[in-house]
Every structure is written in structure tokens, then in C-alpha cells.
Amino acid sequence: MARRDGQSQNLGSRLVQLGFLAAVLALWYLATNRWGVNRLLLPNPLSVWRQLIDVLRSGEYLPDLRVTLTELAVAFVLAMTSGTVVGFFVSRTRYSIRVFEPLFAGIYSIPIILFLPLYILFFGLGPSSKIALGTTISFFPIVLSTVAGFGNVDRTLVTAARSMGASNYQMFRYVLVPAALPVILTGLRMGFTVALLSIIGSETIASLAGLGHHIVQLAEGMDMPRMFAYIAFVVAIAAILNGAVSFLEARGRRRLG
Amino acid sequence: MSAETEAFLHRHPGVVRLGVIVLILLVWEIAARWFIDPLFISPPSRVFASLGAVWNTQGVPAALRLTFFELAVAFAISVAAGLTVGLAIGLQPFARKSLMPIVLLVYGLPQITILPIFILYFGIGAASKIAFGVTHGTFPIIITVVAGVQNLKPILLTSARSMGASRWHILRWVIFPHMIPSFFAGMRLGMTGVLLGVLLAELYVSTGGIGHFTTLFTENFDPTKLFGLVAMLAAMAIVLNEIVRRAELRFGRWR
């Protein structure tokens, strides 16, 4: 009986969610087609849909997508390398953790997007300022999680491996990395997400190319249906990328677990 | 190094941390003074000396005040909305099950992509910054409030009810006290979100806020003033974050 209650409640929740989605779409449709909301403020959902199909079919997004993905890849690789290496060396002694960890955590609490004007002045409007900002922003979650991961390895494991005569390399490869990896993977996922957001963000604020830049161009041209379509496209890209990274994180965890 | 200084440093890692910061500033000072084009970067000593000049620039104090006002209003709205919606969703198991996935879905969207829409709807003044700050700040508060209500032990509710507590009594004496830690944690996350949202919108387009001046100083290749202004904003962000964090520490551990 209780189980059937749970099932009907599940069904109810799904219905509410579907209803919510349907209501949003219906309101959107009615607002543009019946109630005469200005087309410049809210485009018709049907025309947005047509533009979305057109965006996908024409392939005009490819150059911008390539720019954004390149920036993202370079920024993330830089942040991953520097973050894990710095984090590993900081985590080697309890003392250096106590010195550096609050420093990283303190800087991490400042909204680093503030430095964007400095980066643009220094690196220019091109991809390098986005790469630099993305690297800076994703460095901090990665370094903090690396320090937490390597710093909290169970002492017993380390002592046991030592007493059985593990070399430094064996210690690193078979004890420290497997023990620290779950925490580090979480940090890498967070780093990836914030790198993606900050790169699209800095493209929106000041740039010459990229997905964020294209949205702004459409907004400035007041091409509303196409801008909404393009926003949906970028949101889908971000969702796919984040989903892929979450999947890789789960896989890396299972392989070691 | 004598054994005494070593022991002292060992007890106070903060001193070494300060040393690291001074070292970084020193490297920056030397690099900026002698190795890098002064059009792009400014040594910290000059930035520090210019803070007064930045403050005296026509319009900067007003811009800082305006940005502070936007942050405060956006934070207040986020807390009020986040608490109300969070309680409404969290207290009803059915509502939680149906609506939480929607909240989490919306929270996961990259909001920066819709920034141009906010400018379109709310104009280039303070309203668009406040609105963008609110959408960034509300969701973390909703999520932590819901989590806080969810973690309430059912036995407490049952015993309160069996002792004849009314709905209001349960809300006031059982649910609120147990929510306080997660509520303050949510406020801290909300403040981070509000800072991000407001500053993003400011940097995107601004007529009277600090975004106007960061653009002005960047376009005039005036790194000294730009660094000074960014330093002031960073200080504002640190102070706001610290207030919320202190509040969390103070009220978060009442049990």
C-alpha cells in the first residue's frame, strides 16, 4: 500500500513538472499571440523555434563554437595542471597547508570576475584574456580540492605502505592518488563548470568572437527570435559539456573505487 | 634561523602567509617598474598612492555608493524571496518532490547567457543589475533552506504535534530554530551569487555604476586608477563576504 502511494506521488510530481513546463509555454504563446506583448521584448515561441532550426542547420555557430571551446580547453588544461601540481606540493606538509590554504580560500571568496578589466587591459580583447580569466577562476576550486584530497589521506595507509617498503613512486601511484582522487575529481568538475561560465561571461562583456559575443551581437541588432534561439543553443551546449564532465567524474570514481 | 624564531613561525603560520603576500607584491612591483610597459600594468606602490586620486575622481564615490546600493537591495530581495519560496517548497513533501527538480534545473542554467535580455527588460540603470543579482542570489538560498527543512528530524515534529502545538508554534519553535544554520549558510552562498550577478551586469553595461569607470580607465590606458578601483571593489566584496561569514559562525552553531 505504502509503495503504491509512493508511486502515485511520483506520478503526481511528474504531472506537476510537465504542467509547469506546459504552462510556461502556453503563457509565452498567449502573451505574444493574444495579449500583444511587444515582439521586441518577447518573441513568438514559434518563430524562436524556426530560428533555432535555422541556426542548427546553417552551421553558422561553428566559428564561434570553435573559439569558445578552444579557450575553454586551454584554460581548463592550464588550471588543471597548475592546480593539481601546486596543490600536491602544498599538501606535502601540514605546515604548508596551514600557510597556503587560507590564502587560496581567501582569494577564492573574492568575485574574480572583477579582474576582467585588468585582464582585458593586459591581454587584449582576443581569446588570451578569456583564457587567462578562465584559468584564474578555475584554478582555485582545483587547488583547494587537491590540497584537501592529498592532505586528508588516512595516516594508517601511508604508514602501512611505508613499513612494507613502498618507494616514493609506489607511494604516490598506489596510495596517495587513489585515496585523494575522488575529492580532486569533484574539484576538477567544479573548475570546469566555472571556467565555462567565466569564459562565456567574459565573451559577453568584452570580446571579438565566441558564443557569448554572438548573443550580444544579436541583442544589439534587436534580432530577438534569433537571440532567444541562440541562447537556447548555448544553454544546450553548456548542459552537454557539464553532463559529459559529470559522467567522466563518475566513471573515474568507479574505476578506482 | 634560530630555534626560537623557527618555533614562533611554527606556531603562527599567518606570519609566513603574510611573508608570501609581501613577496608576491615585491615581485609584482619589480616586474611592473622595470620590465613591463607601464601602459598595461602598474606597480602596487603607485596603485596604493593613487587610491586617494581614484576616490577624488569625479563620480567615483557616487558610483561606489550606487554599486553598494545595488548589492544591498539585491541581497535583501534574494533573502526574502529565497526564504519564502524555500519554506513554501520545503515544508510540503509533495511540493518538494515536484518543484525541487525545476529549481535545480533553473539553477544549473548558465544565467550569463540571458544577461542581454535583462538589460533589454530593465534598462541600463540600476534595475537590471539588481534583477540579475537577485536571480543569482535567490536560488542558492532556496536550495539550502529546503535542505535545512528536509533535515529536520520527523520525531521533533511528531512530538511537538502530540504535545498540541499549533502550526504557527511548530513553525516558530521547531522549524525556525533548526533552519538557522542552513539559512545562514544559504545567505553566504546568496551573497556570493549576488556579488557575481551585480558585478557581471555592471561590467557588461553601466551608465553610473563602477562598470562605467572600469571601462573608462581601461579605454584611457590608465592602469593605476583601474587597479585602484578594482582594489576598492575587492575590499567591498571581502567586507560583505566577511560579515555574512561571521554571522554564519555566530548563529550557525547554537546547538
Structural class of chain B: mainly alpha
CA distance, first residue to last residue of chain B: 45 Å
Strand fraction band of chain B? under 5%
Oligomer: heterodimer
Radius of gyration of chain B: 23 Å
Euclidean distance between termini CA atoms of chain A: 37 Å
Output the structural class of chain A: mainly alpha
Query: Shape of chain A from CA axes?
Result: globular
Tell me the number of strands of chain B. Answer: 0
The largest pleated sheet of chain A is described as: none
Question: What number is the mean pLDDT of chain A?
Answer: 85
Taken from the alpha-carbon principal axes, the silhouette of chain B is flat
What is the largest interface, and how many residues per chain? A-B, 46 and 48 residues
Pick out the low-confidence regions of chain A: none
* Count of alpha and pi helical runs of chain A: 10
Approximate strand percentage of chain A: under 5%
How many strands, which pairing sense, and closed or not: the largest β-sheet of chain B? none
- Listing every helix as H and every strand as E from the N terminus to the C terminus, the arrangement of chain B reads HHHHHHHHHHH
Brief descriptors of the model:
heterodimer; A: mainly alpha; 83% helix; B: 255 residues; mainly alpha
Explained architecture:
The complex is a heterodimer of chains A (257) and B (255). Chain A contains ten helices and no strands. Chain A is an all-alpha fold and 257 residues long. Chain A is globular and about 80 Å long. The model of chain A has no long low-confidence stretch (mean pLDDT 85). Helix content of chain B is 83%, strand content 0%. Chain B is flat, with a radius of gyration of 23 Å. Chain B is mainly alpha-helical and 255 residues long. The chains are: A mainly alpha (257), B mainly alpha (255). Chains A and B meet through helix 1, helix 4, helix 5, helix 8 and helix 9 of A and helix 2, helix 5, helix 6, helix 9 and helix 10 of B.
